[in-house]
Amino acid sequence: MSKPVESGGVGVAGSGLVLGVLASGQFLMTLDSSVMNVSMATVASDLGTTITGIQTAITLYTLVMATLMITGGKIGTILGRRRAFGLGLVVYGVGSFTTSVAPNLTVLLIGWSLLEGMGAALIMPAIVALVAANFSPERRPAAYGLVAAAGAMAVAAGPLIGGAVTTLASWRYVFAGEVVLVLMILMVLRRIADVPPAKSRLDVVGSALSVVSLGMIVFGVLRSSEWGWVQPKPGGPSILDISPVVWLVLGGLLVLYGFLRWESRLVHLGGEPLIDPSMLRNRQLAGGLSMFFAQFAVQAGVFFAVPLFLSVVLELDSLQTGVRLVPLSLALLLAAVGIPKLRPRANPRRVVRLGLASMVVGILFLVAGMDPGANAGVVAIPMVLMGAGLGALASQLGAVTVSAVPDSQSGEVGGLQNTATNLGASLGTALIGSVLIATLSTSIVAGIQSDPNVPQSVQEQATTELASGVPFLSDTQLESALSDASVPDVTAQQVLDINSDARLEALRVAFSVAALLAIVALFFTGKVPRAPAAKSDAEAPSPQTPPV
After folding, report:
1. Chain segment 290-325, per-residue pLDDT in tens
2. Which of 31, 322, 399, 460 could form a disulfide with 533 if both were Cys (CB 3.0 to 4.6 A apart)?
């Protein structure tokens, strides 16, 4: 058994292996959703279910992860970080194997959505704590940067891997490959310095309240595209003529308030809370968590819209779409690893602001590039700028959050950090998706109604059918639908042109909202410290005393 470190830090000789293991774990946790997104039709066909069924599995996977992150962080404190990491890998591996042999949707839900989600909730907070345990404070920014880069690269590489494996073999091999990767990590896990377990008990009531509150919020956000944010969509459920999304989010916030009050009561009575609420009053930690939330909201929104442009507007296949995202992965990796290496004493606040600015410029390039004659090359420069910006944030934020509290609380920070990222990703995807579809529907209806060449009957039909939203269709898909509906060729061409213009307008608006989110995040960077993290556990600022 390797000796646990007390002050953090491993030798240079062992750091490569440790980083490789932890980065592989982060890559593994992030890969599934991006792979599944490009393989949904094939998976649905193999399992005898619908696209909606696979989307439900994706939703539940995100939901399980998001709701259990805080509890997973606390379990890591009780078991020890390395043991929690290993246990999470075992659960995740069983889930991956179950998914790879799933004969139907029910088994897929158990293997992927439940077991893999539970495993990820143990693994991801433990990764944050194990980086703190294995690297000295001055080396942590580079380590956190590489680990974060591995996760973001999985998002970008997922379509490439999923498209290639699904096309050349079967989507099942992706999950079988994950089992192999899990076994490889477990074989070398003992080489990682551990954080020993602490004598503590799990706050069962607090865990239940956190699961319910976060579950209600995340589920509401994830269903917003189908149910509507406030106004219920036609045919969708409603409560008092208002979309259930409002009630879920409001109810979740109320339960979240109750959770925080319960945790404060435990602290006051000398109990053992799931998290110490005073941590959230720590200015530096709050700043880091808000940046994680913003980063993943923008990242998820852009990763939602860019593949739509490539795969629907330009009709590239999954493999070609994945190739176009490679520049982002490369730029992200270079920035995440290069900034700490070349400028180890860089001002974290300045780096974060420059990263956000790079993301804004990259997104604005996308807005400007959404023209009728645009080709796949239009995303090259924006992807490099986005990757550089995301890498800049990744190089700083992990060290910012962990250095805000004593190393003994790094597991709890990991739970909060991953909760913030999951909430940000869920909100970013839902918000950008809602804006895109709403703009698309409005633009198509307006275009058809204002075009004198479109017959009145078609105008009325379009208005009725598009009132509940319009799917993001390629020209080939729309041509087929118009042909099946026996729409005259001249009218069909007019509708195709209107749809083409509306798609680009919807993408412009969606990218503009993503840029707005990044700009708003700049207003919250004041809580990110100017000085780089360089402290030991004993020197850590108290959560009750926000650092200046």
Report:
1. 999 999 999 888 988 888 888 778 888 767 777 888
2. 399
How big is the chain, counted in residues? 548
366-396 burial: b if 16+ Cβ within 10 Å, else e = bbebbeeebeeebbeebbbbbbbbbbbbbbb
Torsion of CA 504, 507, 508, 509, to 10 degrees: 130
Cα angle vertex 134, ends 276, 71, to 5°?
30
Alpha-carbon distance of 418 to 74, in angstroms, equals 13
Q: Residue 468 carries which DSSP code?
A: T
Question: Both ends of the chain: CA-CA distance in Å?
Answer: 40
* pLDDT beyond 50 at 49: yes
Pairwise CA distance, residues 361 & 301, whole Å = 15
Average pLDDT over residues 191-197: 79
| pLDDT confidence tier of residue 12, bands split at 50, 70 and 90 | very low
Per cent of the chain over pLDDT 70 is 86
In the chain, the amino acid numbered 20 is G
Q: Which amino acid is at 459?
A: Q
Q: Is the pLDDT score of 421 beyond 70?
A: yes
Compute φ and ψ for 242, nearest 5 degrees.
Answer: -125, 145
The number of C-alpha atoms within 13 Å of 43 and in the hemisphere containing its C-beta is 34
Question: Position of tokens 């109604």?
Answer: 449
Centre a 10 Å sphere on the Cβ of residue 130 and count the other Cβ atoms it contains: 30
Q: Which residue has the tokens 């918000």?
A: 431
The token duo for 519 is 């700009």
Tell me if 67 sits within 8 A of 210, measured CB to CB: yes
pLDDT in tens, 379-420: 999 999 999 999 999 889 988 998 888 877 777 888 898 889
pLDDT score for 292: 93
Measured CA to CA in angstroms, residue 377 lies from 131, 309, 361 at distances of 38, 12, 17
Q: What is the structure's pLDDT at 123?
A: 92
Contact 326, 481 (CB under 8 A): no
pLDDT, the chain, mean: 82
**pTM of the full structure:** 0.83
Q: Is the dihedral of CA 536, 538, 539, 544 positive or negative?
A: positive
The count of C-alpha atoms lying within 13 angstroms of the C-alpha of 472, restricted to the half-sphere facing its C-beta, is 25
**Which residue type sits at 206?**
G
pLDDT band of 103, cuts 50, 70, 90: very high
Contact residues for 361 (Cβ-Cβ < 8 A; gap 6+): 385
Under 8 Å between Cβ of 137 and 16: no
Q: How far apart are CA 91 and CA 116, in angstroms?
A: 7
Beta bridge partners, 242, equal 239
Angle made by CA atoms 108, 111, 112, in degrees to the nearest 5:
75
